[in-house]
Amino acid sequence: MATSEAVYRAIAEHDVVFRADCPSRPILDQIADKWSMMVMAVLAEPRRFNEIKRRLDGITQRVLTQTLRRLERNGMVERRVLPTSPVGVEYSLTPLGASLREPFAHLYDWTVAHASEIQARQRAYDRRAPR
Domain named HTH hxlR-type: which ranges (predicted)? Predict the structure, then answer.
């Protein structure tokens, strides 16, 4: 049995409560948001700030800065000052951050595979939902 299946079975069988003080909650909150996952996908190779920003349509400079700082604080991303003139900064995944690539790829693949069905269900819900 896969590890995630074992976790889900234990939750179902033992009426596990997702406690507010569970250490996983803030970590999941910090790394599982859309911008963090997209930044980590873009960092398949080291990149400079503006290159990351250009590859993430819709992200603001402020949000990208906050996301990179949060990922750096969590040990997922490394910030390296380049000895250039003017001084440049490059970001790359740490081994810990790279370890999320496989689970993220599964989530992304699932999203792509089910996007049409989810969009159809959203439209059906919106048609019948009270306005």
Answer: 22-119
The per-residue pLDDT for range 83-111, each reduced to its tens digit, is 988 889 999 999 999 999 889 889 889 99
Is the torsion defined by CA of 67, 70, 74, 77 positive or negative?
A: positive
Q: Tell me how far CA of residue 89 lies from CA of 28, 32, 65, 84, 108, in angstroms.
A: 27, 24, 12, 9, 28
Residue 114 is encoded by which pair of tokens?
Answer: 């089910």
Query: pTM for the complete prediction?
Result: 0.78
Other Cβ atoms closer than 10 A to 70: 18
Domain limits at 111? 19-128
Residue 106 maps to a domain: yes
- Tell me how many domains the chain contains: 1
Query: Residue 116: which CATH number?
Result: 1.10.10.10
